[in-house]
Design brief:
mainly beta, 6-stranded mixed beta sheet, 126 residues, 2 helices
């Protein structure tokens, strides 16, 4: 799965702090799964760049899409900032292969409303 990663890999690219391992709820006898169990996705999803905007499916039941901005790209993991219609922001990590992210314009081309933050309404047609 592209949403499960090898702990040393996550530490190496800055997605996980080594110190946070101290706070994980696991047995002292637990061992880190070997790298051989994980597929490499480093070159699988190309083309994402920090600063790009995309549409994020925030509610599958109600087909609610919000604007999101790519803040960082770490191999196949994107750090995105999701903007809701009230200009509230939240950051998440998501796989570049997720079925919850779409290019800008996808919702409109499929007759689905995009929830636009009030600060960006002037850039969108009604």
């Amino acid at each position: 799965s592209e949403t499960i990663g090898y702990i040393p890999w996550a530490i190496g690219i800055g997605l996980l702090d080594k110190e946070s391992l101290q706070n994980m709820a696991c047995s002292p006898q637990s061992k880190i799964a070997p790298k051989s169990l994980f597929q490499s996705h480093a070159n699988k999803f190309k083309g994402f760049l920090a600063g790009q905007h995309l549409e994020y499916l925030s509610d599958e039941l109600n087909l609610t899409f919000n604007i999101a901005k790519v803040l960082a790209v770490k191999e196949h993991i994107l750090k995105i900032e999701i903007l809701n219609e009230k200009d509230e922001r939240r950051c998440i990590l998501i796989s570049a292969g997720s079925r919850k992210i779409f290019p800008m314009g996808w919702a409109a081309s499929n007759s689905i409303n995009l929830k636009v933050p009030s600060s960006l309404e002037k850039y969108f047609e009604n």
